[in-house]
């Protein structure tokens, strides 16, 4: 295999996979976000700490995300709408997957661009039509990838990245969600 | 009774082990809870035919000799084929003998059965890889008005109520039952997860001819990159039919079967299906194409040119939910796989998931062996034609073990 440099430490990922096969407890992660209402439909969510490998962990720095609604919703538009964050997550996850799989398969990437579109009928959240769901009706991701690989190999990269994607799974399969008042 | 080797199970795997034990004059018994070829007699549906062609049905020193090498055996024919092998090899089978416990006491295995006890220096577990159907835990939440079937209690469409059927799983079993049920006039919804798409014939040859010729079948377990994955691979979407037609998802769509994604959960009486259908289609289409490309690269001459198959058609409106209380679905067929059962095995050789922890059929407990598990030693391990090489290797190891420990 020729050496390619996509900047993904595949060796470390493969070693982690082997190590965690024998230690399922260490593989249990909890990702956390804490949010605070600001004003109107504007809130601020912070992410820094998480749990994994049996211990508390921390990102290098705290990330702060503003969520609001746009002016067409008669809001102040201090940030993107919450459902757009799902698109951010999906794009980030699938792109990371493409890079990792390419690295593992010895494919040199030059550029990976994606357009993510979520079709949303907002009559659902407005309660205007009980037959319309609240969430996305469908999501379309279009990748443009320039790499040292055939079209088929690139399609296989994209297919494999979905297969191992946390966000793709979270969006396509039901998840048990508990919401409580502390 | 003292015996050198106990073989558990008189399917083709146990009988092949017996053949090689006899060749080496190792005294042994084959213990079988039912009759020879019991799984083919009791655990298959009526219309089933092998998906491997007749010319490929071979056991050590024993092969198909009928007039239709390209055809596919019915269950009756498979039973005859395996039974004849048992007769020809004079296998010392004890039928109606259920093994209830196997334990190890330092140098001997104590094998308890419904008809008596054996003490053996070595044991070959050939009790089958498909003893129980696997059904997801959420099947408990299916409303009582819906009848549920597994491939073990399914015999034919006529036993199912009229009305809609939800077939779960699109491997060999699922696609075959979906086609049969749809043709019986029951509207079928098929829940599709990861699957293996294959054409029945390619460039005029049976796809399994290509699998043999290319050497894919013979690939050894210690040469495979991701063995865990290879051992869990879904069975291919193939059926043995007189017209040698392809039975992929496009065939089923043309028959009128409605495709939905992997069944993920039941919530409030509704079945929820994954929205990832396009991806499992893409994965299977790409994988099929890669396999056909490797066949083309073999450079076999005198065959029709390479063929390209249309991608799997994505339903225009794939449903994500189905209300199980609406009456639309009257029965469910779980074609969600099979698993072996080892509740009689009292030797600590199972992994955390209850599977035998083996290295090419050799277990960590000295003198204990297994045969007939997925990719045990080769890709072909679970198939009838795959047992000869595996059984020879395993019996070689067993004989060496006996020689080292007289
Ligand atoms: C639906 C289906 C279709 C298949 N189609 C094909 C095909 O087309 N071509 C092909 O090559 N392969 C096919 N296979 C795969 C394989 O050939 C069969 O699974 C075959 O039955 C495996 O043979 P075996 O000897 O390993 O196990 P089995 O045939 O299952 O034999 C195991 C024997 O052990 C006995 N047993 C189990 N537990 C005990 C116990 N505790 N005490 C005593 N006896 C016990 C059982 O009664 C059984 O007779 C198919 C499998 C299935 C499930």
From TrEMBL, chain A:
InterPro entries: KH_dom-like_a/b, OsmC/Ohr_fam, OsmC/Ohr_hydroprdx_reductase, OsmC/Ohrsf. Pfam families: OsmC. This is Osmotically inducible protein C.
From TrEMBL, chain B:
This is FAD-dependent oxidoreductase. It comes from Dactylosporangium siamense. PANTHER family: FLAVIN-BINDING MONOOXYGENASE-LIKE PROTEIN (AFU_ORTHOLOGUE AFUA_4G09220) (PTHR43539), FLAVIN-CONTAINING MONOOXYGENASE (PTHR43539:SF78). Gene3D superfamilies: FAD/NAD(P)-binding domain. GO terms for molecular function: flavin adenine dinucleotide binding; monooxygenase activity. InterPro entries: Auxin_biosynth/cation_transpt, FAD/NAD-bd_sf. Keywords: Oxidoreductase. It comes from the Bacteria. The keyword Oxidoreductase applies.
